[in-house]
Design brief:
mainly alpha, 10 helices, about 0% strand, elongated, binds protoporphyrin IX containing FE
Length: about 270
C-alpha cells in the first residue's frame, strides 16, 4: 500500500493519539473529585489545556504549509499529525468537560470543533480519493492544452462543412455541442454526451456518397472533441471538490478559535 498523509510512517500519529487518549481515559476513570469530573477540576484544566494546545497546533498547520524554507518536520508529517490529533479531540474535550454539555458558549466551541473535524474528514477523503486522478500531475495534458485541442478539433470539423449539403450540415449541428464551462456544468450537469452511434448511422444514411467520407471524418472529429471536453470537465470537477471543502473547514476553524477564546476568558474571569 502506498504511504499517504493518513498512513504516514505506519500510522505513527494514529498510535500516538490512541495511546494519549488511553492514558487520559484511564486518568479520568481513576479520578474521583468532589462534585464529579468536570472542566473545573485539576484534571479538567489539564485536559482543557492539552485540547487548546492541540487546536493551536492544528491551526499552526496553515503556517507550516506555507513556510517553504522551514525544516520543522515535513508538511506531510504535519498533516498526518493534524488529521489524527484532530480526530482525537472529539474524545479529549468530553473528558475535559466531564461529558457535560449545555446550551452555552462552551458547547458552541465543541460543536464548532466537531464541524471542523467533520469537514476535515470530508477533505481528507477527497484528497485520498481524488488527487491521484489529476492527470496533469502525472504528465497528462494540462487544461490549456486540452482547451487548445478542443478549439482545433472544432475548427477542423467546421472546415469540412464548406460547400456541403443541408443533410451534412444537419449532422454537424447535431454533434457540435457548444462548450459549456459554467460552474453548473462542472459540478452537476452532464451537457456533453458522446456521439450517439445509432443516431450518427441514421444521419449518415441520408448523406450522398460523395459526402460520406467527409461526414464520417467530421463525426470522428466532433466525437474526439466531446471526449476531450468531458475529460476537461471531469478534471475541473475534481479540482473544485478538492477546494470546496476548505471553504467550510477554514471558516469553521476560525469560528472555533473565537468561541474557544470566549470560553477560556469566561471560565477564567467570570466564573
Ligand atoms: C485552556 C483551555 C481550557 C480551559 C482552561 C477550560 C476550562 C473549562 C472550565 C473551567 C470548564 C468548567 C465550566 C463550568 O463548569 O462552568 C469547562 C467546561 C467546558 N469546556 Fe473547557 N476549557 C479549555 C478548553 C476547552 C476546549 C478546547 C473545548 C472545546 C473545543 C472546551 C469545551 C468545554 C465544554 C463543552 C465544557 C462544558 C460546558 C458545560 O458543561 O456546559 N474547553 N472548560
Ligand atoms: C479542531 C480541528 C481542526 C482544526 C482547527 C483544523 C484547522 C485547519 C486549518 C487552519 C487548515 C489550513 C488550511 C489552509 O491554510 O489552507 C487545515 C487544513 C486541513 N485540514 Fe484541518 N483542522 C482540524 C481538523 C481536521 C481533521 C480532523 C482533518 C481530517 C481528518 C483535517 C484535514 C485537513 C486537511 C486535509 C487540510 C488541508 C491540507 C492542505 O491543503 O494542505 N483537519 N485545517
Amino acid at each position: 500500500m502506498q504511504e499517504t498523509f493518513i498512513s504516514y510512517k505506519r500510522f505513527r500519529w494514529l498510535w500516538i493519539t490512541a495511546v494519549g487518549l488511553l492514558v487520559c481515559t484511564t486518568m479520568y476513570a481513576l479520578n474521583s473529585p468532589v462534585g464529579g469530573n468536570n472542566g473545573g477540576t485539576a484534571l479538567g484544566y489539564a485536559f482543557g489545556t492539552i485540547a487548546a494546545l492541540g487546536i493551536g497546533l492544528l491551526m499552526a498547520y496553515a503556517a507550516r504549509k506555507r513556510a517553504y524554507r522551514s525544516s520543522l518536520g515535513t508538511v506531510e508529517g504535519w498533516l498526518a499529525a493534524h488529521v489524527w490529533i484532530g480526530i482525537g479531540l472529539i474524545l479529549l474535550v468530553p473528558l475535559h468537560s466531564g461529558f457535560s454539555f449545555g446550551l452555552d458558549v462552551h458547547t458552541t466551541a465543541y460543536v464548532l470543533m466537531v464541524g471542523t473535524i467533520a469537514t476535515g474528514i470530508w477533505g481528507a477523503v477527497n484528497y485520498s480519493r481524488l488527487s491521484g486522478k489529476i492527470t496533469a500531475h502525472r504528465g497528462g495534458a494540462t487544461d490549456a492544452t486540452m482547451l487548445e485541442r478542443i478549439g482545433e478539433l472544432g475548427k477542423q470539423a467546421e472546415a469540412l462543412c464548406a460547400g456541403k449539403s443541408e443533410a451534412f450540415l444537419q449532422v454537424y449541428n447535431a454533434f457540435d455541442v457548444p462548450l459549456d464551462l459554467s460552474l453548473w456544468s462542472i459540478i452537476v450537469k452532464e451537457r456533453h454526451p458522446s456521439v450517439n452511434q445509432k443516431a450518427a448511422a441514421v444521419m449518415l444514411s441520408v448523406i450522398s456518397d460523395a459526402e460520406q467520407r467527409d461526414a464520417i471524418a467530421m463525426i470522428g472529429l466532433l466525437d474526439q472533441r466531446l471526449d476531450l471536453i468531458r475529460s476537461l470537465l471531469e478534471q475541473a470537477r475534481i479540482k473544485a471538490l478538492l477546494k470546496l471543502w476548505l471553504y467550510t473547514h477554514i471558516p469553521l476553524s476560525c469560528a472555533l478559535c473565537v468561541a474557544l477564546a470566549i470560553h477560556i476568558v469566561v471560565v477564567l474571569f467570570y466564573r
